[in-house]
Amino acid sequence: MTLERISRALAPEGLMTMGGLSHPEDTTRTILLIGADRNFWETFKKAPEYRDGADNPIDRWSKRVIGAQAKAEQAEAVYPSDGPPYAPFIAWATGTGQFWQSPTGMLVHDRAGLMISIRGALILDGIQAQIGTGQSPCTSCAARPCVRACPVDALSDTHFYDVRTCKAYLGSEGGEDCMKHGCLTRRACPVSQAFDRPAAQSAFHMRAFRGT
What is the percent of the chain where pLDDT is above 90? Predict the structure, then answer.
């Protein structure tokens, strides 16, 4: 089966299939979302893009690795970094039945929790992946630690994400923990904790986020 073959091919690269859906504009095609798995960081650190000092190393690595998989499957590759116009990755994600909106507004995945890093998508001919039928992990999470984790209430269940407050905190002495180990809200999610993303990977993303 195509989906199983793709999953096996991506695993050594530290990537995983995160969900699929019928293409909204052509139901004879499937959109398969590809994201970082638990062993992504150790794999990426061995890549030339990690060491060459050029800009956007993960985006360039993603295009090389996912692009090769697209060629092998005679598929079209699409990336979140391409644009404008940008592909509707958030709409695609929620359409898979494996991503949902968390109480804080961020997307949550049934396996990765809030530690989501979608690196690209493959668009394939035929129906290669089924829409998920699971339930959001937030539904059974009575404690909801994510809504109380942000020290400056930038992420909350009562308002939209306050990016300005978040970045100001990250630039302060108090934000050092988030910068070194990753967003406290993301880390508070029990599913994220089980996914166990390395702190170095989260720190890399935090530096990139703060610099935008």
Answer: 91
CA distance linking residue 11 with residue 16, whole number of Å = 6
Contact indicator for 152, 165 with CB cutoff of 8 Å: yes
Return the minimum-mean-pLDDT range out of 31-45, 122-136, 195-209: 122-136
Q: What is the DSSP string of 135-173?
A: --GGGG-SS-THHHH-TT-SS-SSS---HHHHHHHHTSG
Q: Is the pTM of this model over 0.70?
A: yes
Q: Which residues pair with 26 in a beta bridge?
A: 23
Straight-line distance from the first to the last Cα atom of the chain, in angstroms, rounded to the nearest whole number: 40
Res 131 pLDDT > 90: no
Residue 132 scores a pLDDT above 80: no
- For residue 85, say if its preceding peptide bond is cis, omega within 30 degrees of 0: yes
- Token reading at 197: 């993303």
The Cα–Cα gap between 22 and 50 comes to 34
| Structure tokens that stand for 124 in this block | 């394939």
Residue 175 CA to residue 29 CA, distance in Å, equals 44
pLDDT in tens, 100-113: 999 999 999 999 99
User: Rounded distance, CA 138 to CA 121, Å?
Assistant: 25
Residue matched to tokens 């306050």: 162
Exposed / middle / buried, residue 20 (Cβ in 10 Å: 0-12, 13-18, 19+): buried
